Amino acid sequence: MLPGPRSQNAGATQLPLLYARPATETNHVAILLKPFEKIALGTKSLRFYHADCLDVFRQHDPQSVDVIVTSPPYNLGIEYGRYQDSLSPTEYLEWTNAWISAAARVLRPDGSLFLNVGAKPSDPWTALDVAQGARPHLRLQNVIHWVKSIAIDRASAGAGAGLTRDLAVGHYKPINSDRFLNDCHEFIFHFTPFGSTAIDRLALGVPYQDRSNIARWQAGADGLRCRGNTWFIPYETIQRRDRDRPHPATFPSKLPEQCLRLHGLGRIQLAMDPFTGLGSTAVACARLGVNFVGADVDEDYLKEAVERVRAVSTNRMRKASLRAGQSGEAGQTRKTGKAG
Questions:
Q1: What are the residues facing 294 on neighbouring strands?
Q2: Which residues pair with 170 in a beta bridge?
Q3: Which domains does the chain have, with CATH numbers?
Q4: What is the pLDDT of residues 186-215, one digit of tens each?
Q5: Contact, 252 vs 5, CB < 8 A?
Q6: Which candidate in 19, 87, 95, 293 could, as Cys together with 15 as Cys, close a disulfide (CB 3.0–4.6 Å)?
Q7: pLDDT band at 57 (very low <50, low <70, confident <90, very high)
Q8: What number of other Cβ atoms are within 10 A of residue 84's Cβ?
Q9: What is the rounded distance in angstroms from the CA atom of residue 128 to the CA atom of residue 114?
Q10: Which residues of 305-318 are buried (b: 16+ CB within 10 A; e: fewer)?
């Protein structure tokens, strides 16, 4: 989930291990990087690189990536496996500018960058500062709010919701403070090259609660409306953090899956996550049948990401085998005229 180490020029200010400086003639990648792992899923492939994301960006042609879904380090002092997540604000924004510039170069003219950024109550500007860092390179087309936990009182939900009591769902990290509220959401900034990328709004459509609204709106002819920019996606329930989620800053695979669907699956030839971490974007691509490229400098995280994708691959093959078996049994039944 983190950028990689780079050599520093003599006399230059030292950045903490993992934070990359913008490319120069002296640190340009001259050779093609070898994938850490490559997984084939039918006609699709998922490639993982144990490398600095800037080096991986650099080896891709301009306008060669359709979608980037990622979550970089937040610079909030998070304790990663091996790395220090604490730069000065100026250094962090310089690094942010470097990797977003590299991402913008490889993004297709109708591409999308979905950037998940969080903050902490005592430093609420972090996410907005990162979004501002993208302004010289990309247009901010949509702002999506990832809601991780929400409380809904029965009266506000209305009778149609069928609630028998007030409801509180999802997961969040409690804050013991007399100044701050529990932080139950993060931003997903949707950047595009020109602010005019078409999206598939109804790929994430939700049914109208009031069926009479369908007739009022031409777009509601199929009974769906746009989900909007608030997405409730709770974390999957886990038993042990060290075993089931060995990374301090992840997002559920459903989040990148919704980003990919929103962009439009039929238009995606290649998706990318430059801060792969445990591979949530890779898992989403494996489920949806999308080519993927990911990078991370932490080998342990990459190994976990690869294992998660292999599990998806195994599950897909098992389901395909079951479907083939059921189809064969149905065909045999039709031939014999018998019902099992």
A1: 48, 273
A2: 149
A3: 37-144+191-197+249-328 (3.40.50.150)
A4: 999 999 999 999 999 999 999 887 666 556
A5: no
A6: 19
A7: very high
A8: 16
A9: 14
A10: bbebbeebbeeeee
d(CA 132, CA 98): 13
- CB neighbours of residue 13 within 10 Å: 9
Angstrom CA distances, 90 to 86, 94, 95, 96, 133, stand at 11, 6, 9, 10, 11
Residue type, 337: G
Residues 235 and 253: their CA atoms lie apart, in Å, by 9
- Backbone φ and ψ for 267, nearest 5 degrees, come out as -100, 0
Task: Give pTM, 2 decimals.
Answer: 0.82
Distance of alpha carbon 39 from alpha carbon 50, whole angstroms: 15
Q: What share of the chain is helix, strand, coil (3-state, %, to 5)?
A: 35, 20, 45
Q: Hey, what are 62's tokens?
A: 């301009």
CA dist 59 and 309 (Å) reads 24
Angle at CA of residue 166, ends 164 and 168, nearest 5°: 125
Q: Which tokens sit at 308? A: 């998660």
- Give, for 293, the enclosing helix (H) or strand (E): strand 292-296
Which alpha helices (H) appear in the chain, and where do they start and end? 53-58, 89-106, 126-133, 154-157, 212-216, 241-244, 254-263, 280-288, 299-336
